[in-house]
Amino acid sequence: MSQSVRIILLYSLMFAALVAVGFAQSWPLALAILNMCLISGIMALGVNIQWGYAGLFNVGIMGFAALGGVAAVLVSEPIRGEAWSVGGLGLVASFLSILAAAVAVGWVRKHLPQRGRGLITVLLLIAGYAAARQFFGPAVGAIEALDPTIYGNIGGAGLPVIFSWLVGGLFAGGAAFLISRIALGLRSDYLAIATLGISEIVLAVLKNEDWLARGVKNVSGLDSPVPSAIELQASDWFISFAADIGMTTIEASTVFVRGSYTLLFVIVLALLMWLTERALHSPWGRMMRAIRDNRDAAEAMGKDVVARHRQVFILGSAVVGIAGAMLVTMDGLFTPGTYNPLRYTFLIWVMVIVGGSGNNWGAVLGGFLIWFTWTQAENWGPQAMEFVTSGMAGDSALRLHLMDNAPHMRLMIMGLVLLITLRFFPKGLIPEQIRR
Amino acid sequence: MDALQLLIGGVANGCIYGLVALGFVLIYKASEAVNFAQGDMLMLGAFLGIAFINGDRADLPFLLGLIAASLCLGALAYALDRFVLRAIFGQPQFAMVILTIALGFILRFAAGTFWGYDPVSLETPFAGEILRLGSLTLAVADLIIILATGALTFTLWLFFGRTRLGVAMQASSQNQMAAYYMGIPVKRVNSIVWGLSGVVSAIAGVLFAAKGAVEPSVGLLFGIKAFAAAVIGGFGSLPGALLGGLLIGVIEQVAARYAPSGYSQIAPYALMLLVLILRPGGLFAQIAQKKV
């Protein structure tokens, strides 16, 4: 079976499954799943750029997605002048002192002799921290004291939320740049632990720095790029339109809102897909594959391996950041407490591996398929346990014990899907195609 | 006094991190790959200890239960290498990574199904006992952990330096091919290293359970921090792993006391990133030149 036939067949099966959900359950649900599938596909695409193109092992996807998410808050929330007037100066001063300390450390490490350098570095870092703390504490206290039940944060830039998709990419790319300075060029598992550490740090900051995006108090009611369902339900033309297509107004408005998101996401995915495919089939893409498959030979041919790795790591992380911003935009809600490594790192990895790492179509298909399975598997565990224990007495201890554990089976199912795929399709459902 | 007390508590925690990091490094030296299920082996060791020692289970004396748990986990780890990991010997490194991650999931699920998802704690003869030295208040459990780790480290040091098997392990970790030519059964030695790592994990797990409650997902986070400890020590160095563990344990306690709340959890990662920036090969760099 040729590659393109395989792609078309698998994607048609996927959409058939989504349409089946639409008919069997409801259209708003099918569209909600489709939207999350599209976002998952974009995240998987970002990871595929890192892992599939270059073999970089990023286990901090959660952190990059959360950085994208906070971008949605910081871009779209209205400007809060009073918060800036009480604490803006202090914040800027503390950031400047950190920056000054970092520049000084950089200078010291470049120009001073080896001996005594470490001590000066430590002293400079402590001085910078103390100075930053000096300005930071009062400023943050003042900002958080303003209307803490509704705001207590510095607000945002007051721009349309759709810009945050770009800004989210920039945030995640910036974090990736910092990580690449630390851990690229070292052993490959150091990159894994560095990304993991940074993603935990990002989440800790987002959860605890209330002045930034309200921390675990969450930000809700974000600006939306599409008309809101409530506005639609109140407008006359929409009521008559809903009557024309034979749906209730409420259902029609939900379908309309989710459908508009679908349209936006499809545009983003198609654009990213076009760009990544172009990149993969360009000389740059061949160079990346050469570096991945034989690093030493590529280095001997004069390719700057670390610089290329840095490039591809930043690009991939930026794509994950874009997806993270889209996710928060669609929810209209930023909740740092809900980011966990299982959902935002492990699951995305399963998507890439099941779909086919190194192949963009495969990674996106993996995103669709695994998200679909993940949402549907919620019911499978209890159903399976119900079936297994159906022969037992209703109150037998074993049955109760097994039913208690049923919700934990969702992860088992994901592990099973992973193992079965690796056994029968070791290169994924749509494997990478090497053109010679 | 306050600082000293904090330090001792931190060192006790750090001993457990150090032992798990030791397990990482042992397996890394044998299989040239990171075992991402190491934290889950600690969890399993803790549950085995509970199953052997607690009054409502097997009700063995503490020391006997500790030995039984470490033998069980050692045998399990040996079997894992013999029957599962040897099957993918020679495959790309990533296969091993995915396999050990999947193993972790399986162990977590198995422990949850056997022993439930509620936290349980170990009944020890020294639970809750406190030693007063002047103005110092020390938990006996902490002291026992420190002593046990010291004893185990000394035993391991003797084992690696003085026994034929220990020297064979060193040889095959340095150059598998040369060791093979010298008549060392490298494959079996590697499996024994896995078993040894299992024994160390079980002891760490029982000590861990002596300090607090255990539930199936406890190994995940613990394993990640121990991995950070191994990185700090310079992957591949046994004393480095122990030292990295101690550093992580102490810094976590200090951060829990002095840093703003919510940040103590990330102090280990911050320390690790600092070490990666300033001394990329770790504190005891000995394999910095080796590419993986």
TrEMBL record, chain A:
Kindly state one GO CC term assigned in the UniProt record. plasma membrane
One Pfam entry for this protein is: BPD_transp_2
* Protein name (database record): Branched-chain amino acid transport system permease protein
The protein's matches in CDD domains, at most eight in alphabetical order, are given as: TM_PBP1_LivM_like (cd06581)
Keyword set for this entry?
Answer: Cell membrane, Membrane, Transmembrane, Transmembrane helix
Keyword Transmembrane helix in record: yes
Q: Which PANTHER family match?
A: HIGH-AFFINITY BRANCHED-CHAIN AMINO ACID TRANSPORT PROTEIN BRAE, HIGH-AFFINITY BRANCHED-CHAIN AMINO ACID TRANSPORT SYSTEM PERMEASE
What is the scientific name of the source organism? Pontivivens marinum
Subcellular localization: Cell membrane
| The keyword Membrane belongs to this UniProt entry's keyword annotation | yes
From TrEMBL, chain B:
Q: What membrane topology does the annotation report for this chain?
A: Multi-pass membrane protein
CDD domains per UniProt = TM_PBP1_LivH_like (cd06582)
Subcellular location, principal: membrane
Q: Name the Gene Ontology molecular function terms of this record.
A: transmembrane transporter activity
Q: Which organism was this protein described from?
A: Pontivivens marinum
- A Pfam family (short name) is BPD_transp_2
* Protein name, per record: Branched-chain amino acid transport system permease protein
Family of the protein in this entry: Belongs to the binding-protein-dependent transport system permease family. LivHM subfamily.
Alphabetically ordered keywords of this record: Amino-acid transport, Cell membrane, Membrane, Transmembrane, Transmembrane helix, Transport
Q: Which GO terms describe its cellular component?
A: plasma membrane
The source's superkingdom equals Bacteria
Location(s) in or outside the cell: Cell membrane
Question: Tell me, what is an example of a GO biological process annotation in this record?
Answer: amino acid transport
Residues that span the membrane, as ranges:
6-28, 35-54, 60-80, 92-117, 137-160, 192-214, 226-248, 269-288
